[in-house]
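User: Hello! I'm new to structural biology and keep hearing that structure can be predicted from sequence alone. Could you demonstrate with Sigma-54 dependent transcriptional regulator? Please show me the input and the output so I can see what each looks like.

Assistant: Of course. The first part below is the input, the amino acid sequence of Sigma-54 dependent transcriptional regulator. The second part is the output, the predicted structure written as tokens.
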Amino acid sequence: MEEKGKILIIDDNEDVLFALNLLLEPYMEKIKVTTQPSRIEHFMTTFRPDVILLDMNFRRDAISGQEGFDCLAQILQTDPQAVVVFMTAYADTDKAVRAIKEGATDFVSKPWEKEKLLATLSSALKLSRSRREVGKLQAQMLALKGDDGLPELIGNSPAMQKVKETVGKLSNTDANILILGENGTGKDLIARMLKYFSPRQDAAFVAIDLGSIPEQLFESELFGYEKGAFTDARKAKPGRMEIASGGTLFLDEIGNLSLPMQAKLLTALEKRQIVRLGAIEPTPIDVRLICATNADLHQRVAEGGFRQDLLYRINTIELRIPPLRERGEDILLLAEHFLTGYNRKYHKEIKGLTREAKNKLLKYSWPGNVRELQHTLERAVILSENLLLRPSDFFFPAAANEVHEEAGEELNLEKLERKAVEKALRASNGNMSRAAELLGITRFALYRKIEKLGL
């Protein structure tokens, strides 16, 4: 018997329970026994057995097996996927057939033959594991469709089908993952889904936007500090990495880290420990790392702007999220999804989009990706007085398309950046958040580009 697992044995005869416990101990991970059918639900919720070995007859009725069938119904009501093996001294074909029809997995007789009993329980354990795997995969597919409370991962395009398939394949891994994609493509959503389907599903999920943390606060935010470590440190505070220990740490916009900060992060990951500011002793950490960026880190490594050893540490697996402009009809699926949500939020009854409006959405380049589409639909729902959204309900800044079109005309990267930043600033009337959105970068990254370009 190769399989090992947890078994609950229910029988009114204590000698039988003792004998089975002795026999199965070398072959099972854990064994619980009881003479009281009333305790079944308690053991199912606290012990969570892989297999239940259930006596068919108790004191009230010696031969009919009805008490066993009543217990079977109770078990399957508590857990429809439970694996139950019936056991009786009065085995006959009719009872065996009825037991299988009513949901039992198999049937063994007393006195048992050791090898046959072990073979039956081994098959039952395999079935239990198979049912759990199927259930987990079904839960994943429901979640990918948005049916269990998770944010919905919408899209039927080949590019998105590949993303969904990859997320499913990564469900049982604890490997570090690097999510690549433009701003607004939903990298944070993918990170949360990867956490949800990981062995750390029930542990902490701590997200940090590295693009929004000033360099001088990096260490205190990530590693924490002790009381008195600096002027305003009136009490000790754990860092984000310490809080995430045992769970998942999501580092968004990791491409924005400076080289000195990259070195400190790498040291913490390699040593699996951090030192709070002002502390002497290190604190061990155990985190599963998921990172995201819109930057080409391999190019950054070649240019000397990103440490190669840190890249190796964070990208055990790379997962690329396609931009919205490459997702075809997904644009319309997302538009309908957002329309439904904002109809509910703003108490509107807009029925859909005209054909012309749909064509306008499909032709636009969406530099801000799904986030921009979401904001566009929200604005349209708020302002429109029509039953159908029309092309005039959607306003797209000319600068976004101009930047997209002129990229092929000018090959000097610095000039392209300067033109793009200047046009975005003009189109947004100096609004830095809007300009960053048009450019598909964070506001912090925009400030760095303005300083670099001397604008």
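User: So the tokens describe the shape?

Assistant: Right, they're a compact way of writing down the 3D structure. Reading them back into a model, for example: Residues 6-137 form a domain with the Rossmann fold fold (CATH 3.40.50.2300).
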